[in-house]
Amino acid sequence: MTTIAAANHFTANIHGVNIHYELYNQRSNQPFIVLIHGFLSSTFSYRRLIPYLMNDFSVLALDLPPFGKSEKSIRFQYTYKNLATLVIELLARLQIRSCILVGHSMGGQISLNIAKQRPDLVQQMILLCSSGYLKRAQMPLLLSTYIPYFHLYVKRWLERQGVEKNLLNVIYDHSLIDEEMCKGYEQPFYDEQIFKALARLIRHREGDLSSEELKKIKTPSLLVWGEEDKVVPIHIGKRLHQDLPNSQFISFPKTGHLLPEEKPSHVYEQILRFIH
Hints:
Elements: E1 9-14, E2 17-24, E3 32-36, H1 50-53, E4 58-62, H2 80-93, E5 99-104, H3 106-117, E6 122-128, H4 139-144, H5 150-161, H6 163-170, H7 179-186, H8 193-204, H9 211-214, E7 221-226, H10 234-243, E8 247-252, H11 259-262, H12 264-275
Helix pairs in contact: 2-3, 5-8
Pfam families: Abhydrolase_1
Organism: [Anoxybacillus] calidus
InterPro entries: AB_hydrolase_1, AB_hydrolase_fold, Epox_hydrolase-like
């Protein structure tokens, strides 16, 4: 394992891919809480929640490749199963034998895959506006990813969307959007390699877990939703709650998709209440 330390920031090479991760308040007597971000995001999305969590937990936050500061590999197969395996391997290398998973959006789906693969590893699970029931991309789009320079179409599409426009869509209270937030979510896209990696993610993503698979996951789970979520509407959360046999559901009014940014203290309080 190759580890490059700078303050509480590290890099681990797992299965040939460099994974960026951050450790906060690491103490042997405190349970580990593991933060997994969503699509087009990074550990940056948890920066407002982490200070609360540090009061009660050792905290591990990581950038799923190809996002954040992790490698934008053009060799890795970006299936949810493989991404979950990377997280499991990272936990093993850090000798974390039991943890509480927190997954936002796509990170919720990765968390569910981890719980499916290694139920012994996941003590409890908190899903924040988790993605759910998305099918694999249709065949015309899958075939398009093999076209040379398809990654440039991905780049142009993201540029047309724009970071600020995307934030306006995922945050209910637009007054929260400031220059720091825009720069934080824009930073990973300065690396041109990410667009090739995103093309591979479109090609490899196998789709979300089915209702049948979800019903087999017995991990105690808390589902937290924003009632104004435009990305993963609240009915998805309620359906996940029905399919996950050992789950609780709570929602916040006047709240959008980006829960860790919008309601960090409220999310922290619900996590504590659920765990204890």
